[in-house]
Amino acid sequence: MVGSQPCGSSVPRPRDPSGPDGRTRHWYEDELGWPTAPGQPVRLLVGRRFDVLDVPARAGRAALCRLGPGSPVAVQGDRMRLLVAAGSAEELPGLLEWLEWGRLVPDLVALGAGALMDAPPPPYAAPARERPRVGRQRAQGAAAWLRPPRPGREVEASLPALPAVGGAGDAPDLVRLVDTVATQCHRIRLLRGCAQPLAFS
Predict the structure, then answer these.
(1) pTM here?
(2) Distance between CA atoms of 107 and 79, rounded to whole angstroms?
(3) Which of 1, 132, 165, 197 has an alpha carbon 20 to 30 Å from 120's alpha carbon atom?
């Protein structure tokens, strides 16, 4: 018959219109309630549900013990992103001054309202053997969860915060977290300086 399909042939399935980016966006917006920015790749709007401390991965390792088990942590290249309570980015300069760090730790960067963070793929998207480990080198452009957020839980309640700002009573203390990270950032800079060859004129 004219126009009939040969026996055994199969009609190709329509492609998923959402695609990987659509599924990722759905996971963040619908399951976590975190807003995303328009466009691709998927990026998270910082400053609404959380702020971010962006630190060298080596410094971030020491801070993991200061975080609660529900505090999300992402890695991208040689940087670690520690999610903290919304509003923390505005508090960071004054907090560093109070801790007497001042401008000694330029590697400690706070991302707050108006900033964007690359959205790591949801944890279900990567086999366990491919999930990142602390210290493992990754491509500079690839973000991944080291400690992913968990849908169905109030993630924000587990984020480090200043005691006066709020958060649950058992939330990690932002002051101790920042002091730990600042100490490690400063130590890394000193070691880097010692490793530089002396210049003779």
Answers:
(1) 0.78
(2) 10
(3) 165
